[in-house]
From TrEMBL:
InterPro entries: Bact_HTH_transcr_reg, Chorismate_lyase_/UTRA_dom_sf, Tscrpt_reg_HTH_GntR, UTRA, WH-like_DNA-bd_sf, WH_DNA-bd_sf. This is GntR family transcriptional regulator. GO terms for molecular function: DNA binding; DNA-binding transcription factor activity. Residues 3-71 form the HTH gntR-type domain. The keyword Oxidoreductase does not apply. One of its GO terms (biological process) is negative regulation of DNA-templated transcription. The lineage of its organism: Bacteria, Pseudomonadati, Pseudomonadota, Gammaproteobacteria, Orbales. Keywords: DNA-binding, Transcription, Transcription regulation. It comes from Gilliamella apicola. The keyword Transcription regulation applies.
Amino acid sequence: MAKPLYRQIAETFEQKIYSGELDLEDVLPTEQALQELYKVSRVTIRKALEQLENQGLVERIKGSGTYVKYHSAKHDAIKLQGFDENITALGRIAGTKVIHFQLEQALPTIAKQLRIEVGTSIFSIVRIRTIDNEPEILEQSYMPLSLFPDLSVKVMESSKYHYVEQQKGYQISHSRQDVKPVLATTIVAKHLNVETNHPILRLRSVSELKTGETFEYSIQYLRGFQYRFEYIARRGLD
C-alpha cells in the first residue's frame, strides 16, 4: 500500500534536514508554494508540516513561517571531543553497541599506525555509535594491550575518552585525521541501515598521548544523516 501523500512529503523534508541540506533556522517554503510544488491540497501540506513538528524537526511560527528546529551533530575537526560529549551536549541521546571485541596480534598495517612491533598484542574493537537510537557511525578501533590491560566490553560501551583520561590517568594530546568519501560495502551498509554502495564518509584517525605514545588507530564509517563536519579556516598566524 502506498504511503499517504502527506507522509511522503514529510519524509522528503526529513531527509533534507537529516542530511544537512536544510540546516537549523532555515525557513521552509510557504504552504502555498508547497501546494504548487507538490500539486496537493493545503490540508495535505499542513498534515505534512504537523508530522515534522511532532517529530521535533521544525517549528511553525504564526505569521512568520516554518523553521528548521533540528540540531544535527557536528564533528569539530579542530577541537578534539568524544562522541558522547559531543552528542549529549546537544541534548541528544548517544548510544554505543560493541559487536566485536577481541585480543589479536598486530598485523603490519596496524602496527605501523600504532608505532609498535608486528605481532604485538592489541585489542580489536568494532562499535556502532547511535544518535537517538539510530545507527550513525560504524567504528573499528585498535588499542595496545600494554596501555590498556584492563580494557573490556563494558568500558567500550561507554565513553572511551573518559576511560583513557579519568580511569587510566593518561593525558590525550591530539588526533591526526583524514576524511574520504566512499561507497558503503555490504557489511557496512547492513550495520548503518543504508543501501550497499550508498555514499558515506570514512574517517581514519591516529590518536596520541602527551607522552608521544599512540593509544589508538581507528577507522570510522559515517552515515551522515545526523552527523556533519565543521572546519574553521583561519587566515594568518593570529
